[in-house]
Amino acid sequence: MGTQGRTALAALAGAVVVTAGAVVFAGASAAVGPSPAPIVQAAQATCVTDGGGFCTVPHGLGKVPEAVVVSANTPNPYNGFMLNTVQGSFTATTFQVRAMFSQTTPKTYGQIWFSYAAYAAPAAPTTPATTPTSPPSTTMPPTTTPADTPTPFTTPSGGGS
């Protein structure tokens, strides 16, 4: 077998391996998340930090987030900072972020741009109210004995008027 034949055979074998791997991966990649799914809000935001590098961000979850993930997406000349959420700042309507140039130097009075995803626990499932029911009442008719059974009225025979 020549060089071209070996090259073609190697390419074919590689294609088979890649195809088999893709089929296995496709069958195993059906992602399943938590059930019930959390409430999620993802958005882009911008704000101007205060003297401590803090900024308050409104959200529309309607409840306190369990977690908020932020990612700075500030234009190049302004992006030399770290961005984090502020522990204990989550409320039903807002959360805070803090921009820092270093661990000890906040980005003060500067505009920042970022994306965020806020996650809240799903609403508790509602179950219909149930009222306890008692088993149906079974009333038995009174039992009768032959002595209790009335005899039909009979007319005495032999006498007449």
Task: Provide a descriptive summary of the structure in words.
There is one protein chain. This protein is α+β, with helices and mostly antiparallel strands and 161 residues long. The protein is built from one helix and six strands. The chain has one helix at residues 3-28; strands at residues 39-48, 54-58, 67-72, 82-85, 94-100, 111-120. The strands form two sheets. Strands 1-6-3 form a three-stranded antiparallel β-sheet, with no helix packed on it. A hairpin with an 8-residue loop joins strand 4 (82-85) and strand 5 (94-100). The termini are far apart.
**Kindly state the mean pLDDT as a whole number?**
77
**Can you tell me the overall shape?**
elongated
What structural class do you assign from the helix and strand content? alpha+beta
Main beta-sheet strand count, sense and barrel state: 3 strands, antiparallel
Distance between the termini: 138 Å
| Global Rg | 40 Å
Task: List the strand order in the largest sheet.
Answer: 1-6-3
**Strand count:** 6
What is the strand content?
Answer: 25-35%
Order of helices and strands: HEEEEEE
The helical percent reads 10-25%
Q: Unreliable runs, pLDDT <50, ≥5 residues?
A: 17-26
What is the number of helical segments per DSSP (H or I, 4+ residues)?
1
Keywords:
alpha+beta, 6 strands
Secondary structure layout plus pairing:
Elements lengths: L2 H26 L10 E10 L5 E5 L8 E6 L9 E4 L8 E7 L10 E10 L41
Antiparallel strand pairs: 1-6, 2-5, 3-6, 4-5
